[in-house]
Design a protein that fits this description.
Blueprint (H helix, E strand, L loop, with lengths): L12 E4 L6 E6 L10 H15 L3 E6 L23 H10 L2 E9 L2 E2 L1 H12 L16 E8 L4 H14 L9 E5 L23 H23 L10 H5 L17
Parallel strand pairs: 2-3, 2-4, 4-6, 6-7
Antiparallel strand pairs: 1-3, 4-5
Length: 257
């Protein structure tokens, strides 16, 4: 499932630094051995370029190049695995304002590595910030999907729900992608007889990628200015100590004779 040792090194990511203070992390969960072979990476690059122009620092991480075993614990080295790059990757997620997950479609679903990423994010869902909220509170989540079969909306539904459940804030139209004709055929960015590589001239893909990227930037700016979500009603530590933030059970249903 992986090819390198921990820790995650800067040589394994592409970065573009700006001065706005906002940071976006793009994680590609393609199954290809190298990022240079990934069609999904091409569309992730387009989104990152839009964010760069909007003043957001971007970083790309290719999950296949790191040893991230499946599991639901923060560090699988404590559970029998010799290596686990996840703690270092999790630090990158925490440092980012925006997380964009890229995945291809296989058999109508996201990649197996995408599920590993979601499971490992779930593994740290119990970690809380200073307001007693899950660590992803105040962060924006989105996804990019490619393939040559139908299923962008289905995959996005699964990925975006998972991110939202874990505490990420999902902006409007937070997904984009490209799919070709059903069945075998060229994938996004493949060369073809015309001047434009496959999918590059698709107005729908261009529009949705642009809107998704800008919505991530707009929402991240709003959350940054608000310093995240208020803790009132969301502080799990205060809930654990007995505070109920106004919750009360309704009267029980009356039993019928």
């Amino acid at each position: 499932m992986a090819a390198t040792d921990t820790p995650v090194k800067s040589s394994k990511v592409k970065s573009n630094q700006t001065q706005s203070g906002l940071r976006a992390l793009f994680i590609n969960t393609s199954l290809k051995q190298e990022a240079a072979q990934s069609h999904t990476q091409l569309l992730l690059d387009s989104s990152a370029l839009i964010m760069n122009k909007a003043g957001v620092s971007t970083e790309h991480l290719y999950l296949r190049e790191h040893t991230v075993p499946p599991g639901i614990f923060p560090d699988m080295r404590e559970h029998g695995h010799a290596q686990d790059a996840w703690p270092d990757i999790w630090n990158k997620v925490q440092a980012a304002n925006i997380l964009v997950v890229g995945t291809p479609i296989w058999l109508g679903e996201e990649s197996s590595l995408c599920r590993v990423l979601i499971e490992r994010l779930y593994a740290v869902s119990g970690e809380l910030n200073e307001r007693g909220q899950s660590k992803p509170y105040g962060k924006v989540g989105a996804c990019v999907v490619t393939g040559n079969e139908d299923g962008i909306k289905h995959v996005s539904m699964s990925v975006l729900y998972a991110l939202n459940h874990l505490g990420f804030t999902i902006p409007p139209q937070a997904d984009c992608g490209w799919i070709g004709e059903a069945g075998p055929g060229p994938s996004y960015g493949d060369s073809k007889d015309s001047d434009s590589p496959t999918g590059f001239d698709n107005d729908f893909t261009q529009r949705n990628t642009t809107i998704m990227s800008w919505n991530c930037v707009h929402l991240a700016r709003l959350l940054q200015a608000a310093e995240g979500f208020p803790e009132e009603g969301t502080n799990r530590n205060r809930w654990k100590s007995g505070e109920r933030f106004g919750f009360q059970n309704p009267p029980p249903l009356e039993k019928k004779g």
